[in-house]
Amino acid sequence: MVTEFNGLLTATVFLPAAGAVLLLLLPGTRDGKPNRAVRGAAVAVAVADLVLALLVFALFDRGEDAARFQFVDQFAWIPDVGLKASYLLAVDGLSAPLVALTGLLGLCAVLASWHIGLRVKEYFFWLLLLQSAVMGVFTSLDLLLFFLFWELELLPMYMLISIWGSGRKEYSAMKFLIFTILGSAFMLVAIVAVFLTPDVGTFNLIELSGAGAALTAAAALIPLAWLFWLFFAAFAVKLPTWPLHTWLPDAHTDAPTAASVMLAGVLLKMGGYGLLRVNVGLFPNQAEQFAWVLVVLGVVSVLYGAVVTMRQTDLKRLIAYSSVSHMGLVLLGIGSVGVGGGGLTVTGLSGAAMQLFTHGTITGLLFLAVGLVYEKAHTRYIPDLGGLAGRMPFVAAAMLIAGLASLGLPGLSGFVSELLVFLGAFRAYGWPTALAVVGIVLAAGYILWMMERAFFGPRPSTGSGERFTDLTDATLVEAAPLALMVVCIIGVGVYPALLTDVFDSALEPMIKAINGG
After folding, report:
1. Domain residue ranges in the chain
2. Bridging pattern class, strands 461-462 and 465-466
3. Is the peptide bond before 383 cis (omega within 30 degrees of 0)?
């Protein structure tokens, strides 16, 4: 077993978990009030992890070595029981941007939790542990280790929703848990089947991706098509794909703001990342064979999510259903592998990967802004809102930028990813892609309608005069994460090569495998 240890990724993955444990050593209250030192320590840990995540992205070699895995940490894990399982962390062009995204949203989630007063120490413990779990998913290149991090994410999110959520929080938390555990069961079966396949006997994703011929020739245990769909079931639940999406609106609606930011920003991206890393990376022939199924599911998700979004009167549910629609574009981009080769195939996959990043920042900003609206106005019911821009101009501006990015305004990050997806998919699936474009038109409708009703319409009145006269804009702590997201959305929109070149370095080998080369 090869032993190699760079250390940067291990520090990036486990720093939040170590910080979470250290938080438990601090007193939760001081003079009968929540201990501000807990919040400060959580922010310090999140900032430090963001610095490490940005180092991973900045130091990633974009030259001749861009196609290989970098910052490798590897050593034997459980070698005495006949398992070739290893502790293996590394990044390539697909995962490096997602590591940076997780670090960025982790800090924003901590800053968005400054107002938490209930069991503060435990709250930040679960939030930081969640960040470590997601970091582990994006960096694990051993299937068994990948699965353990995938499962570790469930407990912190369940606790955050069920304890610090609102509404039917216990119901929503349990629904989230049941759906994702069911998907994980399919993944575990597939992982075991891959390992037991003759002449394979490893969980190492690097070796598996390079042993496609051996995996194909020795697929007597379970046909590769079955393995493809078992993995797909797990990732489709997390993405989520219609009709496996029903847990998402409930979880978003009842989750605290920080949990919604992490859920929409990075947890959903675990599903798209898994489809690219495993389904396309390990099963390129099956990905091409069943690409039309992915396209159909993607188009249905885009249209269904957009139509249902237009019916929502709760700001959080509106954004949640819009996520179903926009994640459908990820499937559409991945489905472009059905082209069977050519430059536009790379374009579609690159668009799907870009959508993972850009949607994470856009929805993260939307949920941050909605959380501030709810905290100050004590309602998310759109008909009861109106004229908020006059009282909360900074929040309204952030919400508008996120909304325009979501509907694909040129110059913002959402336009880049959506354009790449449509260019990549249109070559082989013209009419389905044209239908998906209708979803973007609907997105313009529900985003602009929501902004008009909630922020720029007439102020609602009561018997004694106008409502919301005492509303205040975001404080410095509240405005900081909004500003970070806005800078990221505009920066990627203006200079998309910052990400596209990195993503392409990982996706081009997948295209070569599909083309048989």
Report:
1. 1-240, 290-461+481-509
2. antiparallel
3. no
Instruction: Taking the CA atoms of 190, 511, 266 and 167 in sequence, report the sign of the dihedral they define.
Output: negative
Bond from prior residue into 243 cis (ω within 30 degrees of 0): yes
Instruction: Dig out the tokens for 82 from the structure.
Output: 């006949």
Helix (H/G/I), strand (E/B), else coil: 75: strand
- Between 175 and 513, residue with greater pLDDT: 175
Query: How large a percentage of the chain has pLDDT more than 90?
Result: 61
In DSSP notation, 465-517 reads: EES-TT-----HHHHHHHHHHHHHHHHHHH-THHHHHHHHHHHHHHHHHHTT-
Asked whether the beta carbons of 8 and 56 are under 8 A apart, the reply is: yes
pLDDT tens figures, 279-325: 998 888 888 889 999 999 999 999 999 999 999 999 999 999 999 99
Asked if 216 and 295 touch (Cβ cutoff 8 Å), the reply is no
User: Please, what's the b/e burial string for 455-484 (b: 16 or more CB within 10 A of its CB; e: otherwise)?
Assistant: bebeeeeeeeeebbeeeeebeeebbbbbeb
Q: What is the DSSP letter of 381?
A: B
Contact call for residues 35 and 28 (beta carbons, < 8 A):
yes
**Model confidence at 36: pLDDT above 90:** no
Planar angle of CA 224, 228, 231, nearest 5 degrees: 135
Q: How far is CA 436 from the centre of its chain?
A: 21
Contacts of residue 216, Cβ cutoff 8 Å, sequence gap at least 6: 224, 285
Q: Which two tokens stand for residue 221?
A: 């245990």
Q: Cβ atoms within 10 A of the Cβ of 430, count?
A: 10
DSSP readout, 330-379?
HHHHHGGGGG-SSHHHHHHHHHHHHHHHHHHHHHHHHHHHHHHHHHHHS-
**For residues 494 and 45, what is the distance between their CA atoms, to the nearest angstrom?**
30
Residue 298: both structure tokens together: 């993607």
pLDDT digits (tens, 9 = 90+) for 252-281: 889 999 999 999 999 999 999 999 999 998
Q: Residue 462 belongs to what H/E stretch?
A: strand 461-462
Give residue 341's pLDDT band: very low, low, confident or very high (50, 70, 90).
Answer: very low
How many angstroms separate the first and last alpha carbons of the chain? 29
User: What gap in Å lies between CA 280 and CA 188, rounded to an integer?
Assistant: 18
The encoded tokens of residue 345 equal 């195939």
